[in-house]
Design brief:
This protein is an alpha+beta fold. Among the domains are: 73-102; 110-209, Lipocalin (Beta Barrel), CATH 2.40.128.20. It is built from two helices and eight strands; from the N terminus they run H-H-E-E-E-E-E-E-E-E.
Length: 211
């Protein structure tokens, strides 16, 4: 006959078997996927995005912010350079005008005209260097209905306030205009030409101030 087991020993054996079965299931779960995260270990953030995505978004925003800073600095530098250049131009123009205004007005300034075709007009003005410049005109050789310019020339530095002269060098002669002030509205001009072959020609023209 079989020997009867003690009820206490029977209950202890059942508990041991249950523990073994539970441990086996836990081991199987660990092998299949490990311990699942609890409430405190949730892989998502408050905004519903995974933590890895949140870190990527913050990294991207940092990159964009750091890229904008140099651009603002470059724009500020360009704006400063443009303002500096504009101010320099304004100061230069102002200085030039002030320099021209500081020149004492000369009596020869203006446009002088005559009825002589050989010397119809003389324009006289002061440059930014305060020196006098002149442009002579005569009737055109091929068209007597028009006058032709001889070109701009700087006038000589005459010590006499009522006398000025200006020279022109041609391919076959040297010509000098001597301007003598008669009054504020009239001058006489002695035109002296010396040709390279030695011949000399001169004449005097009376001119009046038109403006």
């Amino acid at each position: 006959m079989r020997e009867m087991q003690n009820p206490a020993d029977l209950r202890s054996g059942l508990r041991s078997a249950a523990l073994k079965e539970t441990g086996g299931e836990g081991l199987n779960e660990a092998r299949m996927g490990g311990v699942q995260p609890g409430e405190g270990d949730d892989a998502s953030c408050d905004d519903g995005m995974p933590r890895a995505a949140t870190r990527y978004r913050r990294f991207t925003m940092t990159q964009v912010s750091s890229a904008r800073i140099p651009l603002r600095q470059i724009m500020a530098a360009l704006l400063t350079a443009a303002l500096t250049l504009s101010l320099s131009v304004v100061l230069t123009v102002t200085s030039t005008k002030e320099a021209a205004a500081s020149c004492s007005a000369n009596r020869f300034n203006g446009t002088w005209r005559s009825s002589d075709a050989r010397l119809k007009r003389i324009d006289v003005w002061q440059g930014q260097d305060c020196h006098l410049y002149a442009r002579a005109w005569s009737v055109c050789e091929n068209d007597s209905s028009h006058i032709c310019s001889w070109g701009n020339r700087r006038m000589g530095d005459s010590p006499e306030p009522n006398f000025q002269f200006v020279g022109y060098n041609w391919n076959n002669a040297d010509e000098v205009l001597h301007l003598r002030m008669q009054d504020r509205s009239h001058i006489s001009v002695w035109d002296s030409t010396t040709y390279h072959n030695g011949r000399k020609v001169s004449f005097t023209v009376a001119m009046y101030k038109s403006r």
